[in-house]
Design brief:
4 helices, Ribosomal Protein S5, domain 2, RNA-binding, 4 strands, 19% strand
RNA sequence: UGAGUCGGUUGGGUGGUCGCGGCCGGGCCCUCCUCUCGAGGAACGGGACCCGGUCGAGGAAGGUCGGGACUCCGCAGGGCAGGGUGCUGGCUAACGGCCAGUCGAGGCGACUCGAAGGAAAGUGCAACAGAAAGCAGACCGCCGAUGGGCCAGUCGUACGCCGGCUCGCCACAGGCAAGGGUGCAACGGUGCGGUAAGAGCGCACCAGCGCCCGGGGUGACCCGGGCGGCUAUGUAAACCCCACCCGGAGCAAGGUCAAGCGUGGGACGGCCGGCCCGGCCCAUGUCCCCAGGUAGACCGCUCAGAUGGAUGGCCACCCGUUCUGGUCCCCGGACCGGAACGACAGAAUCCCGCCUACAGGCCGACUCGCCGU
């Protein structure tokens, strides 16, 4: 990224973006990758292209709850991940949720996610 | 004012903050063209970036139970098998749906509920109880007229332990099914006559069945009258019979484009002396052409239109409901404060229905009761 490009107003991502995980093969890789658990949250990560924003996907099984419950959980997690976006590394994340997460408050969920991400950074 | 019936409707609001998806417009970038290398232009196209605008979950979006649209496959015609539906008339693209009615059952009533064709085509079943459960049968009980036995009286005598008649007893033959008891259901009900006792045995009325006639209704059916034999059980969400309907799979349907590797065909090759046709040989090769087809992409797909799944997260206030603390008084409320809760539930090709879930709130019509006038 050169200064000329910035002046020209090129496709510069101004905010911290998060992309989706799009290809099936990447999911297979994520599934085989190492997992970090903290409370009801499970996170796995594989490195990727540093030029691209991090990719994040969520896996919430049917046994977690009804469609309403699962939707609310995913939306809360998405907001949490968005706030934590600057600390993410390039690559793909897969975030899993256990059924017990439905009873947590937003603050409790936040604490679990942050701790899980920190542990992932340390390793 | 209390209890209730039916129908409809609503499904929290406002603000702040951080965000998402589609479409439209603009910018920027990619791409292409020109040039005096600053930039200018473009009829198309692409973008995961920025700005603005606009639209963005439900009454059930749910269950996937009926229909239909749509798609592919199958298909001469007829029958059998299999499945579904089952009072009547309308509505609907269609339905197992809706509306109006008929009949039956329940409720004081407003109303509610009902797979509601056929049991006189045939087969099966009817547990327990009970004597007996479908065409016969008799436990207790009633009778014992008739026949039989016994006792007594009386009459006749051809005097016999004979015969006739009468009263009584027995309950042996036999008659009865009214009453008791069992059961969801017991061979119509009530009354009178009748009888030894009884019985549709006879009669009257009622109920039921069948047939006929008249009237009303499009029809299911209803109303009235007559005749008949006097009773012909229930069960078809048991088999079955009758009438009508039904091809299969489903958007992961299906369609378009189609990399790489491989496959098949063709061209270029060799041989039949040369050329054309034709045939044979195949080994290798080719910036070569074609075909089906895989990954993948797109369409199907929508004025919400995703595809690890957008339509939101957090906070504050307000509003409801419930609980609770305090003050005041005319004991039921007024005022001030606190806490908890705010349901069921999230589109996935679309539409019409059904069923199921649901905190509260609102509106209308009606019924039964109590009080007052």
């Amino acid at each position: 990224m050169t200064p000329e490009d910035e002046l020209a107003g090129g496709p510069t991502p101004t905010t911290t973006q998060i992309w989706r995980v799009e290809h099936r093969e990447l999911f297979e890789v994520l599934r085989r990758a190492r997992r970090r658990r903290h409370g009801p949250i499970t996170i796995s990560w594989v490195p990727g292209d540093p030029a691209e924003p991090p990719r994040v996907a969520y896996t919430i099984g049917r046994r977690v709850g009804t469609a309403v419950v699962r939707n609310r959980l995913r939306r809360r997690l998405r907001m949490l991940i968005r706030e934590a976006a600057p600390t993410l590394r390039p690559g793909a994340y897969l975030i899993g949720v256990a059924p017990s997460a439905t009873t947590w408050t937003y603050a409790q969920l936040e604490a679990h996610v942050h701790k899980a991400l920190k542990e992932l950074d340390r390793s």
